[in-house]
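Please predict the structure of the following assembly.
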Amino acid sequence: QQQVKQSPQSLIVQKGGIPIINCAYENTAFDYFPWYQQFPGKGPALLIAIRPDVSEKKEGRFTISFNKSAKQFSLHIMDSQPGDSATYFCAASMTGRRALTFGSGTRLQVQP
Amino acid sequence: DTEVTQTPKHLVMGMTNKKSLKCEQHMGHRAMYWYKQKAKKPPELMFVYSYEKLSINESVPSRFSPECPNSSLLNLHLHALQPEDSALYLCASSQEVAGGYTFGSGTRLTVV
């Protein structure tokens, strides 16, 4: 019940494309869903996060879509750029246990 | 200051050595974390400190010993490690009630 399942494992898109990364969870006690971006040799950096009371959140070129009934959430990157090439992790946490459960990660490559 | 600073950035140690990893934040965050990340894997939670008290220990072997001297500092003491402990060790911090973590860049540890 602590798992967060992430897909795809890797993704290649052309510059300007819209990569979509999906995550699914089982534990309905999760109430915070962040996405992290990680470049090689660096720590993960928070991109955007959502709580279950909203269905969509946009920050710049990044959008989270959240489907509470399906227990799924996804990250969309609009107008993707080569500089977006990184590993993306979804995660989830719950009130009272301030520890993130991470998805397995998606390696995104944006080709020029 | 919106950073989590980790030192050293790289560490090579023998299996009989004792070494320490250090982490510092000045954002007023009251929760601090140690994560371990192997190549091409998501971060795995090791320890959580809340208000300078250890609140979560994810069954980590005793050769890893955390310490939180004050609200800004977090140490991880290492002793008698094994080669399989080689990994990127990440420190993070967060506000008491918000879920967003700020990660450091990590310490790349190699055990020989």
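The radius of gyration of chain B is 13 Å. Chain B has no helices and eleven strands.
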